[in-house]
Amino acid sequence: MNPVNAIELCDITKSFNDVPANNRVCMNVRWGEILSLLGENGSGKTTLMNILAGIYYPDDGTVLINGEEANILSPKDAFDLGIGMIHQHFKLVDNMTAAENIVLGLKEKGRLDRKSISAKVKEISEKYGFNINPERKIYDMSVSEKQTVEIIKVLYRGAKILILDEPTAVLTAQETDKLFTVLKNMRDDGKAVVIITHKLQEVLAVSDRVAVLRKGEYIGTVDTKDATAQMLTEMMVGRKVSLNIDRPTPVNPIPRLVAKGITCFNEEGYKILDNIDFTANGGEILGIAGISGSGQKELLEGIAGLYPVTSESSVLYYPDDTGKATELVGKRPMQIRKLGVALSFVPEDRLGMGLVGNMDLADNMMLRSYLKGKLGFTDRKQPKKLAEDVIDKLNVVTPGVSTPVRKLSGGNVQKVLVGREIAAAPKVLMTAYAVRGLDINTSYTIYSLLNEQKKAGVAVIFVGEDLDVLLELCDKILVLCGGKVSGIVDGRTATKEEIGLMMTGHKEEEKR
Amino acid sequence: MTDITNFLIAAVLAACPLLLGTLGETLTEKSGNLNLGVEGMMFMGGIAGIAGSFYYERSVAEPVAWISVAIALVCAFLCAAFGAFIYSVITITLRANQNVTGLALTIFGAGFGNFFGEYIGNSTGGYVAVSQITKSGFNDPLFPNLAKIPVIGKLMFSYNFMIYLGIAIAIFMWYFLAYTRKGLNLRAVGEQHGAADAAGINVALYKYIATCVGGGITGLGGLYIVMNSSNGVGGVWVHGCIGGYGWLSVALVIFATWHPARAILCALAFGALSVMRFYFPTSFIPISIYEIFPYLATVIVLVTVSLRKRRANQPPASLGLAYFREER
After folding, report:
1. Which residues on B lie below 8 Å from A151 (Cβ)?
2. What stretches in chain A show pLDDT beneath 50?
3. Which chain A residues are Cβ-neighbours of B317 within 8 angstroms?
4. Which of A246, B125, B126, B128 is deepest in the core (most CB within 10 A)?
């Protein structure tokens, strides 16, 4: 008879530079279940799973796979034990095809027979309901396709235990549903599935049991059917947290930013944005919804002067209440920033645009204020104080202000970025995916920060992906679809279905 | 007509060390290691090869050509591979900066070659030179009968075995990288070492082997310069004989966009540029202008390759980066 537990972890401990990431963690995963691993940013979920995947080696503790003690020294050992991990940052070779990535590193006999590999990939795809072209290069693929390749890759290797690290962070609602169907198929197939996620609705929707980690320690496991969002949050955070997003009524909204006909093309000459019109009022939060890649990034960068827009585009900026307007199109990013238009753009890879990974927190704060020093010397005191404030106010987990940002966990990096932008006291604050990858507690901190800005009369533009949040937080929601505005709705009256249709409507038309 | 034929033949002969250097460095770079020590490894290969033949000839009464050639090849390959091994230990295991290590290897290799060249020469009276037997072993046409066919025979079959060896390595390497599992794995290591590691590939092992074998192949290029020098004085160790060929090879890797088969054509073009002055002298420009051509071409190539951003022609994405699995 097979053991019930696919994985048993006993007293797993792992430290990085004397900072414990996992402290005596004991937990188990059963065959034929989906287990959600829940925890705040930096609570050690990814580290724990990386230990199973052979990326990290534990300092102490034992791992039992299918009842037998296992010594996982490398990813190869993990594969041999039937463990496959889909990392948050995909481990794929960009300029190889899907099929090549799937067979990478396998010790199969003979030369590379691309045809038979493709055939086997198709067979797996059909079994679990994927749709993938094995001959396509990874760099041509969307995030969800890349993820599919990762999943097929581990299945091709005969993985019986699947670990997914924040698989839904980059997916649309539809793609997430599809993924969950696949995961349920696998569970019914007898496999063990572990999924790391921050989104409580998803945890409740897909998993059978939930294990919770807090600050590297194991808190407990509960059956999903007995769990509520409130209770899980408390386990995660360690205290009571209100799960309602506050939405104060806008006071005296006046236009701050009036965009007319924003159009832009990408390097290949594709029209990315097509005639975008909108008005962002001070004291309001304008949400922007859309499938990822619908032009959100270009819109914000266009306004900030970082992305070239056509000369017919116009963005009028009203710095004060006198009704005098300044044209932003054609101005340099630095000028726009000085006028009080802040872009706290949170790019896909958090360290890409906002922060410099190798610099410490204080120096990153200085990126905005390095011109303020005297006689050509920089002023280091203010940024350092600001860094301390941000750490304090947003509960950034870091050894100190002189830690390089790249050493922080993803969520903490994000807090640093958002904290810095808000500290600049902008008139217009643009954020993109401000809570991507953030745990629930931090997300709510960010929401209330945005609300504070709103109350202070700032026009907040919030590009989001979670429709529930958009509907709870925003006063108005602009829906983008394929670079066009498919509508602007009132956040108080609109429904999820309505926005979902507007987001995809354009695509369905194309299919017909 | 004969002029052109002779020019082409000379171009092929001059291209061979560049081809070997380029192939070796291509293999190395495919593993993500940017080894700038090609020049040094060529020196090491050159001196070890000629020293091997030299001592063999001195130790037997009647040296046999093929044994002498084989000893030279093995010594050259191993010595240059040893240089690459030092580089590997420093960059792969100790994760030091690749550029600095490569430059150090160039300086070390040049000193190594020149020192032993002088030393062996002095201790045996005069200079290091191999006998006519070994020289003909390296320089005689591999297919003397086929070479008698007019024009075609001369163009295709009149070369020494090193030329065909170079082409064979190029074709084999192309096949290896494009059509074998090991080749696929190696490319993955150079492209995204993290992905390769997660796929269960032994990243360090692949890097070591590719770098050492690649270094060995560049060493054969150094041996060719020593044994088959196009000026007709082959088989003698000349102080500083590699003279920049290693650096040209590094540039040629980019010119050939990391493609071994394309390296044949690229090396040929550079070979042609370097011998042009002997075949197309002009009265109105000084001859030294010709010597600039290969370097000028290198600059132009580097600029055009970086302007033309085709995905398939890009360097391996992890080129120059050390890999540490547990890094966060």
Report:
1. none
2. 1, 506-512
3. 94-95
4. B128
